[in-house]
Design brief:
single chain; alpha+beta; Rossmann fold; 2 domains; 13 helices; 30% helix; 20% strand
């Protein structure tokens, strides 16, 4: 381990600098060293969170010594890392580096073991996984040698009841600096919508099957359905934004037929995506008779695909869509030359003929292109894309100022089109914990603070005269225009057409 310790010591400052440059986030580091039960006061050494330079100094004092038999007190070290340092960030990662397995015949891989029955203090993997889950900490094991294979294989079996995402593994390839950067950025990407992370969920068994838009044996037969549109609408004396936040969006129902691929064509962190061909029936019709859409279904079993949960997604998207429209108006008002921001309309799909538990999905227009993430809901900023598309960070800032600090649209992601940014799956923070927008991705004031901690106002922010939180009058009324008559339209063909440029 001495060579490994020296490698980390020599590169950790550069790693921190590169991470900050790549993500815009400030990283803090703590250090926990574990040995074995026979090593007395050196069994565990704990240094609390600090900066990378101080961590490098701590590593100079660490000696790879101790231990009696082959296995080590891995579980004891992990408990110290979970419970004995001052976690405060929303994004929490333990990088576990070790070249020896945990005690116990289930883990030791046949090594001579003074404690074949496991940890003598009764620490089990279940205790560790429950504590990781409770504290929302992701554990990443960095494989150094084959001696830990049996332990990791067993832990992967034991983590199954806790779901995916809580315990990851990366293999060390020899370049410590590149390895650490890859490991941290990849793990951070898994928490880019932190709050959606729910390790207790079990994935559905699905086979991804590529498909084209030619209807063939990979598609289901045509089915009758109802499409429910969620939108901001004229709430009388209430401003539409306040109305949609407090009372929910208006609902418009359309009858249609839909044909969907049998298997999903793509998968994301939270949902499967199916191709769909949609045709309205009844009084409403489209100029182009059939539209290409995407039907999304939760990849997890349970209540994730209940009507209530899917309505939340449509509700959040409706708010983002409304605020994007107001932002585009401001760009025109200030004569700012930029691509427009368009949020894909997300609608609730009901297929009555399907069995209970499989009747509800979300439906949105098909967007062709490469998906990119520009920021997330806990302070992450894609610095490479920010340099090319700063207007998207301005949009998040704008939503906060426009609502006088009431809401903030984050988790900006989607496709860069010819004339617009076509976005989907936002997260929205609210300033008040009063039941408004109850969703796991709503981090409230912590999420708002996380954005401003990494945001640097750009030229677009300055042109729009956007204020920082300390410059705003929290007691001022939210002065936002009501809908004009021309704006009182449902998500219709025009909304779908603007997603196809």
């Amino acid at each position: 381990m001495s060579g490994l310790i020296n490698s980390v010591k020599q590169c950790i400052v550069q790693v921190s600098s590169r991470l900050s440059s790549a993500t815009g986030m400030k990283s803090r580091y703590s250090l926990v060293v574990y040995r074995d039960y026979c090593d007395g006061t050196l069994r565990h050494q704990v240094w609390d969170f600090t900066d990378s330079s101080t961590l490098s100094y701590y590593l100079q004092t660490v000696a790879a010594a101790g231990g009696g038999d082959g296995p080590e007190d891995c579980f004891g070290g992990l408990r110290k890392a979970i419970n004995n340092v001052s976690w405060s960030s929303l994004s929490k990662i333990i990088i576990w580096m070790g070249d020896s397995p945990q005690h116990g015949t289930n883990y030791n891989g046949g090594w001579a073991d003074d404690y074949p029955y496991g940890d003598p203090e009764g620490v089990t993997s279940n205790i560790l996984f429950e504590e990781l889950l409770k504290n929302k900490i992701i554990l990443v094991f960095c494989k150094l040698t084959d001696s830990t294979d049996a332990m990791i294989d067993k832990l992967k079996q034991e983590i199954v009841p806790y779901g995916e995402g809580l315990f990851l593994q990366y293999n060390f390839g020899g370049d410590m600096e590149s390895f650490l950067i890859k490991t941290v950025t990849a793990t951070t990407a898994r928490t880019t919508s932190f709050g959606e992370f729910d390790a207790l969920k079990v994935r559905k068994p699905f086979i991804l099957t590529p498909a084209t838009w030619v209807i063939d044996m990979r598609w289901n037969i045509e089915e009758s359905c109802s499409i429910f549109t969620f939108e901001a609408y004229n709430g009388g004396d209430f401003n539409p934004l306040l109305d949609i936040l407090l009372d929910g969006p208006g609902v418009d129902e359309k009858k249609a037929t839909i044909q969907i691929t049998i298997n999903p064509v793509e998968e994301g962190e939270m949902r499967f995506a199916f191709y769909a061909m949609v045709k309205l029936t009844g009084k409403l019709s489209w100029t182009n008779n059939r539209k290409r859409g995407v039907v999304k279904e939760s990849r997890y079993q349970g209540t994730s695909n209940s009507r209530e949960n899917l309505e939340k997604q449509a509700h959040i998207q409706a708010i983002a869509l409304y605020l994007a429209d107001r932002f585009n108006e401001k760009l025109d008002e200030y004569k700012i030359d930029s691509k427009k921001i368009i949020y894909v309309p997300v609608e609730l799909l009901k297929i009555p003929s399907r069995p209970e538990g499989k009747k509800f999905y979300t439906l949105e227009p098909f967007i062709d292109g490469n998906y990119l993430k520009f920021n997330n809901n806990n302070g992450f900023v894609n610095k490479e894309q920010e340099a090319l598309h700063p207007i998207l960070q301005t949009f998040t800032h704008f939503t906060y100022c426009y609502s006088n600090g009431l809401v903030m649209v984050t988790d900006i992601q989607g496709v860069i089109g010819k004339d617009s940014y076509k976005l989907t799956d936002p997260a929205i923070h609210t300033a008040y914990n009063n039941g408004m927008l109850k969703d796991s991705t709503n981090l409230g004031t912590k999420g708002i603070s996380a954005f401003f901690a990494t945001h640097h106002c750009n030229g677009f922010c300055n042109k729009l005269a956007l204020k920082l939180p300390r410059e705003m009058d929290e007691n001022a009324d939210i002065d936002m225009p009501k809908f004009k008559t021309s704006e009182l339209v449902p998500i219709d063909e025009d909304r779908w057409e603007e997603c196809d440029d």
